[in-house]
Fold this protein.
Amino acid sequence: MSTMPEQSGLEPEVAAHGLLSDSEVLVELRVKNVLTPLTYRIYADTPVAEIQNLMVRRGVSAVPVVGADHELLGVVTEADLLRCMLPERQAQWPVVRGSIPASEVMIRSVLCVSEDASLLEAARSMGVRGVPLLPVARDGELVGFLERRVVMRTLAQATAPEEASTPPTRSDHWAGDPQQRGLNL
């Protein structure tokens, strides 16, 4: 599953960047242009060990926790799993770490964003709240996640001058005399 959007994979308003100013492009971008589609769900009783395996195998950074009717109960992120792996947290649970259910580690209060929301507004919300991702909903149903790194890359692509869209190679960046680059070697 790819989480990094390519310029050609974005909606037409991004592809038409050459015809719009940077501020117009940013206003036109929508969450649906860059969301990572939802491919996995877990239940409240899913053990942490199973969640870890899923995240590692599939390369996902978060999974929604759903109830019997697929209603959103919470989200388990990589950070949640890392916290429960720490020795000081393991002492809180008298059971084997891997058998802790998702309901014990998930985030219950989850801010969601509509897929039709402005990407710029969603980015502001992520920045203010300090969250690395937001669940994305369509008609009340979870359809994916908006990831901070994808938002950052998309906004950079949308506002970068065309000639600067290709990053310098490592040899270009480090070429020349170290003293001229301000390095004391």
Notes: DSSP finds nine helices and seven strands in the chain. Residues 1-22, 170-185 have pLDDT under 50 and may be disordered. The beta strands are 36-37, 42-43, 62-66, 72-77, 113-114, 133-138, 141-147. Residues 9-160 form a domain with the CBS-domain fold (CATH 3.10.580.10).
